[in-house]
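Action item from last meeting closed. Structure (146 res):
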């Protein structure tokens, strides 16, 4: 049986896939996004890569020296030769990381945010997702779509 996955579309059509999301946390994914952002910034700023064509970018999520999950960033256009620039990859990852970091801060002060949320607004919708299985990831994906 294949592992469970969680998919989320970032800006510019870039897809984030988390294999075994029940074993990962949003903090783990935020760390992966920070590493990926550094990688694509290097391509953009140092290597001067125009269109990134090296395929998907993956990284493990490790707990106690054991890999428990995998994150992968991909772009469906790569299969057809429609590559995205390193600058657009960096832009998408910066937004995703900012959303993950913001959500982590919200989770850290959850009572305050629950009190501030108004029925039916985006904040109450995001906070309600936290109570679902893989809720952090559903809330994260919702914030990216806003």
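Sequence:
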């Amino acid at each position: 049986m294949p592992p469970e996955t969680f998919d989320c579309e970032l800006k510019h059509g870039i897809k984030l896939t988390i294999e075994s999301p029940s074993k990962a946390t949003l903090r783990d994914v935020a760390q992966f996004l920070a590493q990926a952002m550094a990688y694509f910034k290097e391509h953009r700023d140092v290597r001067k890569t125009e269109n990134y064509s090296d395929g998907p970018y993956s990284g493990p999520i490790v707990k106690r020296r054991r890999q428990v999950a995998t994150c992968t960033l991909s772009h469906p256009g790569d299969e057809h030769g429609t590559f995205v620039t390193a600058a657009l990859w960096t832009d998408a990852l910066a937004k995703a990381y900012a959303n993950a970091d913001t959500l982590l801060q919200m989770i850290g002060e959850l009572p305050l945010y629950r009190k501030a949320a108004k029925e039916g607004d985006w904040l109450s919708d995001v906070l309600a997702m936290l109570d679902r299985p893989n809720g952090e990831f559903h809330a994260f994906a919702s914030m990216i779509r806003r």
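Note appended to the action item: The chain has one domain: 5-145.
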